[in-house]
Design a protein that fits this description.
Blueprint: E1 6-10, H1 15-26, E2 30-35, H2 38-47, E3 54-59, H3 65-79, E4 84-87, H4 93-96, H5 108-136, E5 139-144, H6 157-177, E6 182-188, H7 203-206, H8 216-223, E7 234-236, H9 237-244
Parallel strand pairs: 1-2, 1-4, 2-3, 4-5, 5-6, 6-7
């Protein structure tokens, strides 16, 4: 379904990003795997060596403008362009510590790191790929959001605020680039996913949460859209599947 498509995935070393990346390659896409750690990315690329698609390993911190630009340049050099960007990299208080906390206990360093990763990183990567998509007259930007981008939650304010911002960014950029054939959408798993985010949960609750491949089908359908596809929408994965299948 994705033969010849050129896709960049941030946060590709684990969880949702790794699962989507592996699925894209199995669907025939050329995928740039982006994360801060090269060792894990090299292992993933090696595991996918016999699949129909191909991989490019690119290390970068999504907060680093120069590193982001270098990843996009490497992708264009290797694959000839970028058709889809998946902005998956994200962190929250659970990534930085043992749990949530009230706002007055959140340090400026924690707040800044979450905002720069979850919002500035999306801005930097999206900004870098848009000229290539506009030039070719088509493209897809897929932002990985969360139910916390549509409803508040106590003790996780930085993450919630970043995802509310991501929702607004998704809709606004979709409006700006709709006439250029670029679709910009958001997808969320539809619940808690069995990733490191929720390692603190007791075993009985972990048995009830979703697996990292929960968004794979929806991500493939969104990446397969051509110009003038659905844009400016934010839905859980299962609703995207119903909408596009």
């Amino acid at each position: 379904m994705l033969d010849g498509e050129r896709i960049v995935v941030t946060g590709a070393s684990r969880g949702l990003g790794r699962s989507m990346s592996e699925r894209f390659v199995r669907e025939g896409a050329s995928v740039t795997l982006v994360a801060r750690s090269r060792e894990t990315l090299d292992e993933i690329a090696a595991d996918l060596a016999d699949e129909p698609g191909e991989t490019l390993v690119a290390t970068a911190d999504v907060r680093d403008e120069d590193a982001v630009e270098a990843v996009v340049d490497e992708t264009v050099d290797a694959f000839g362009g970028v058709d889809t960007l998946v902005n998956n990299a994200g962190i929250g208080l659970l990534s930085l510590g043992d749990g949530g906390k009230r706002l007055a206990d959140v340090t400026p360093e924690e707040w800044t790191r979450i905002m720069e990763t979850n919002l500035t990183g999306v801005y930097l990567f999206t900004r870098a790929v848009l000229p290539h998509m506009v030039e070719q007259g088509r493209g897809n930007v897929l932002n990985v959001s969360s139910g916390f981008g549509r409803r508040p939650a106590p003790n996780y304010t930085p993450y919630v605020a970043s995802k509310y911002g991501l929702e607004g960014m998704t809709g606004s950029v979709a409006m700006e680039y709709e006439d250029d054939g670029v679709n910009v959408n958001a997808v969320d798993p539809g619940g808690r996913v069995n990733t490191g985010f929720w390692d603190h949960l007791p075993d009985d609750e972990r048995q009830e949460i979703l697996q990292p491949d929960v968004m794979d089908d929806a991500a493939v359908l969104l990446a397969a859209q051509g110009a003038n596809g659905v844009t400016g929408e934010s839905l859980p994965a299962d609703e995207w599947e119903s909408r596009l299948d």
